[in-house]
Design a protein that fits this description.
Layout (H helix, E strand, L loop, with lengths): L7 H18 L2 H19 L3 H31 L5 H42 L1
Length: about 130
């Protein structure tokens, strides 16, 4: 059977469909989206630097990517078997751990960027 090449348009369509399916398929994605919106709003409010925006955007993207990969592994595991398999369970746990670690790293980046500004805002407010 000859392999047909997909057009770029189809590749992008499928990729955007994957994002939509991933967003709908995971309830935890709501938490990540909320955190990303909050961080973006804080970045606008505190007028963070271009470098900080780059770090924030990269951090948000990495968390979303980890969640999408985790979701894809979960769905693939369900397609392979509905029986318990310790190897699949380990793969699912490792994928979940990747999401947890990226979310933790994102929180650390958020603290580094925003904590000094929040402290300054709060101490300035109480100094009045």
């Amino acid at each position: 059977m000859p392999h047909t090449r997909r057009r770029w348009r189809a590749k992008f369509r499928d990729a955007f469909r994957g994002v939509a399916v991933g967003l709908k398929g995971q309830s935890s994605f709501v938490v990540h989206v909320a955190a990303a919106l909050l961080a973006t709003a804080a970045g606008i409010y505190f007028r963070i630097s271009a470098v900080e925006w780059a770090l924030l955007a990269l951090t948000i993207a990495v968390v979303f990517i980890a969640e999408l990969l985790n979701t894809s592994i979960e769905w693939l595991a369900k397609a392979v078997t509905d029986q318990h398999d310790s190897r699949i369970a380990n793969a699912l746990d490792v994928a979940s751990a990747a999401v947890l670690l990226t979310a933790f790293a994102a929180a650390v980046v958020g603290v580094i960027i925003f904590l000094p500004r929040v402290v300054e805002l709060v101490t300035g407010f109480y100094a009045r």
